[in-house]
Write the C-alpha cells for this entry.
Amino acid sequence: MAAAVAAGARRRAAAFLLSSAARHQSSQSSSPQQGLVAKTSLSSPPWPEVKLPDPVEEAKYHAEVVRRVNGLIAAGHYGRLFAVVHFASKQWKVTSEDLIMMDNVLEAECGDRIRMEKVLLVGADDFTLIGRPLLGKELVRVEATVIEKTESWPKINVRFRKKRNYQRTQIIVNPQTVLRINTIEVFPCLS
C-alpha cells in the first residue's frame, strides 16, 4: 500500500515538473513549439498557403508568351478579331462588319470614316490583349463608317389625374446614329 502511494506521488511530481518546465519554456519563447500546440481548425487558416512564383521564371514565361503572340500577329494566323470599345458613354463588343445603333448625335456626317480610339480589349481564337485601362493607339486600330443618322420611334409620355381636369401628353423622339465597323487591326509591337 505504501509503495502504491509512493509511486502515485512520484508520478504526480513528474507530471508537475513536466508541466512547469513546459510553462517556463513557453514563457521564454514567444512562438509555441510545434509539439506542444494541438493542431485544430483554429490554429491555421482554412485556405491553402499561397506560394508566390519565382520572378525569374515569371519573366521568362512572360517573354515567351509575348514572342508567341507577336509571331501570331505578324503571320496573320489569328482568325476573326473582336474588340471591346468605349464609345458614346457605353462599352460595345464588336467584330468586323457589325452594326451599332446609338441613341445620340454624332458630329460626323453620313459616309464619314471614324476611328474608335478607346479600345479596352482585343481578342482572337488564341490570345486576348487587355488594356489597363486602354490599349495603345499604336497597337490596335478600330475603324467605323457612319451609315445612317435618323430618329427613334416616337415615345408618348402621358400624365393624367382623374377628376382633376389634368392631362399632359409629351412625344419624345431621340436622334440615332448607325455605325458599321469596317476593320479591326492589331500590330505586332507587344513588349
Summary: The chain is about 25% helix and 35% strand. The longest helix spans residues 2-28. Strands lie at 82-87, 90-95, 99-102, 113-116, 119-123, 128-130, 140-151, 155-161, 166-172, 175-186.
